[in-house]
């Protein structure tokens, strides 16, 4: 996983956490849902990059 990909995934997760927390405080269900979606997007990016790294390691050995 490259540094920029790690930052992108972490950024999505952080943004999602902030949106979800803000939505809960302001009782905004739509913002809570958007936050959860952003977090899922970050998790998906991270999983994809981990799969790429695993494949690379298999073929490099």
What's the SSE blueprint?
Elements: H1 3-25, H2 29-60
Helix pairs in contact: 1-2
In short, what is this structure?
By secondary structure, the protein is an all-alpha fold. Helix content is 90%, strand content 0%.
The rounded Rg comes to 15 Å
> In percent, how much strand structure appears in the residues?
under 5%
Alpha-carbon distance between the termini? Answer: 17 Å
Number of strands: 0
- pLDDT averaged residue by residue: 90
Largest sheet: none
Q: Structural class, please? A: mainly alpha
- Helix percentage range: over 70%
Helical stretch count? 2
| Broad shape | elongated
Order of helices and strands: HH
Task: Describe the model.
The chain has two helices and no strands. Helix 1 runs antiparallel to helix 2. The model has no long low-confidence stretch (mean pLDDT 90). 90% of the residues lie in helices and 0% in strands. It starts with a helix and ends with a helix. The chain has 61 residues and is mainly α.
Please give a handful of descriptors for the protein shown.
single chain, 61 residues, mainly alpha, 2 helices, 0% strand
């Amino acid at each position: 996983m490259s540094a920029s990909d790690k930052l992108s995934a972490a950024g999505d997760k952080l943004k999602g956490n902030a949106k979800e927390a803000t939505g809960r405080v302001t009782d905004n269900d739509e913002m809570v849902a958007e936050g959860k979606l952003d977090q899922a997007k970050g998790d998906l990016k991270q999983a994809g990059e981990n799969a790429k790294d695993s494949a690379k390691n298999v073929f490099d050995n």
